[in-house]
Amino acid sequence: MITLLTGGRVEQVDGLVVPAGEPVLGWERKPHGWCRGEACIPAFRAAEAETPEGVDLVRFAGLLSRPVVLDREEGVLAIGEPAELAVDHAPGFALDLPQGGRFELSALRGSKVALVFWASWCGCRYDIPAWDALHRELSAAGGFTLVSVSLDRDPADAAPWIADVAHPALIDAEGVVAELYNIVNVPTVVWVDEEGRIARPQDTMTATDTFRSMNNLSAEAATAALRRWVLADEPGLTAEEARAHLRLPTEEERTARLHARVAAWLFRRGRTAAARRHLDAAAALAPHDVSIRRGLMPLDGVDPFGEAYFELRAELEAAGVPIYRPLPDWQAPSASS
């Protein structure tokens, strides 16, 4: 048996070959090829993954341009998401709400959305009440929803910080939404407009100045920009500017996130040595991805606010890698505007 990690789901599959006639990763065999909705893989291409016994999962994922990490020794296979990040198409996703029910980004089409990525292992957890107050204020005007997305690997770590909020508060424990939006650290905010387009790509934003001495970010500028976007319908960035500053993931980053997903799965089961092997692989592929390296510290029994984090900061600063990634100052509104 193989444990399959894909799309935030954990499934047990009987080996790496899916028996003939069964769906594969949501795709079904038709006479002319494999199809999902209106999209199809022609039969001649699909033949690369087909065997007399069925369909090879790893090869089929390759046909879909979805990265794969396979650990045969531990019996786990992780398959990543399609590379769909683009200004003209904010990737859709669905997650269970901690309070019950299910959230789907597509349900908010027709209104503006601010995706606020945070984690309990970041000081930005203290901004959640301020973000929630902004949601209450701006959603009252209509046509706006703020959605917070915790990157905590253990939902229990995020739960106390979102217990009494009014906005949809999600926990991306498997890192699927972070993968879709290429989030490498928190706090990061992405604006999605009424048509489902990315109006402002991954931007380091705060809702309070609690840690301004460390991050040199202006909460006043960030919240003023958000108010103008919602209330005055100011675009903030042109489509060309948004496209120029959208950080698309590299293949190394996509694979690193799968190693992190496998590491989290192994840590939760006490298989620490194997988990650290995948954590090391992720760090080697994407050393700048703080959401992976710091985000896995709690599962490894490491204090994410302690010496290990400051060593990580020093490593990145020495390499010239920014901890925070705000959009250029010329794009940010001044505090007086």
TrEMBL record:
SUPFAM superfamilies: Thioredoxin-like. It holds the Pfam family AhpC-TSA. It comes from the Bacteria. Residues 84-223 form the Thioredoxin domain. GO terms for molecular function: antioxidant activity; oxidoreductase activity. This is Peroxiredoxin.
